[in-house]
Write a structure and sequence with these properties.
By secondary structure, this protein is an alpha+beta fold. The chain is built from 7 helices and 15 strands. Strand 13 and strand 14 (209-210) form a beta hairpin. The mean pLDDT is 93.
Amino acid sequence: MIRLDKFLSDAGLASRRELKELLKAGAVTVNGKPVSDGAAKVDPEADRVCFRGEAVEPPRRVVLLLHKPAGYVTSTEDPRDRTVMELIPPAYLRQKVVPVGRLDKETEGLLLLTNDGELNHRLIAPKHGVEKRYYARHAGTASPEDVAAFAEGLSLKDGTLCRPAVLRPLGPGESEITVTEGKYHQVRRMMAARGLPVEYLRREQEGSLCLGDLAPGESRELTQAEIEVLEAAP
């Protein structure tokens, strides 16, 4: 059993202070009957709680895969720019998902969001070495020397050391890059360090997950099987 106001707050409907007014206004019913007391106990598994006529789902673990378009910042809020949270359906916002790591404003592609803090940490912690694969269009053509430099681990202009990474030339002005960490603008800075400034960048894979045929701005919820594969990865 759980307090009604805590259940509603955890579901992301409103703060406890705001809920007091909503409860007084009769916006909440439990098993069809209006309830105005936030201290009333409910059983999330057995009771049907509705807010303004719509059933309230108890908090659950959610992992979303979003195709981030260019022009959005990876943040929960920003006073100047549009954020990726504006692309997420309201039902998932109520589940309090947040981005896993970052893609810079002009980078497109696969971005995960979750309300599972432990999984979030696992995916971004360098010690777990989760691979992230990018497609890049860039000036120049990557050479065998560039490939070798990535494989050894690059030292950037500011002295930042990057772990060994995979650079796979696809042809003039095109490459795939796979990294296992997420330093600030890492792929762009690594390519620039080799005289290959990036003109377009898209993340296509993270761990076992691929972007697939999602259009920019679209998202989908991962299946339990997909989540288990992510958790099982070394």
